[in-house]
Design goal:
75 residues; alpha+beta; 3 strands
Amino acid sequence: MEYEMKEGRPKTWDKTKRFYEISYPSGKKEIWKDMTARECLTRYENMDPYGNGLKLREIVGKELKLQKIMDGNKN
């Protein structure tokens, strides 16, 4: 996961709710919605990501807009 500095603080201190995607070696993908960076990293680390071969990435830009539209249509 890439980190960006915002006003001299790490992204993990940012309380903005974000969307993340977890990829498993089997090809399965899981979306975590409305989580802060700290919540996401805590949950990810508890899953033993290196032992299980998990990959974490933040969903941003056009992909995030599309995900929100798809979630809105499910309701």
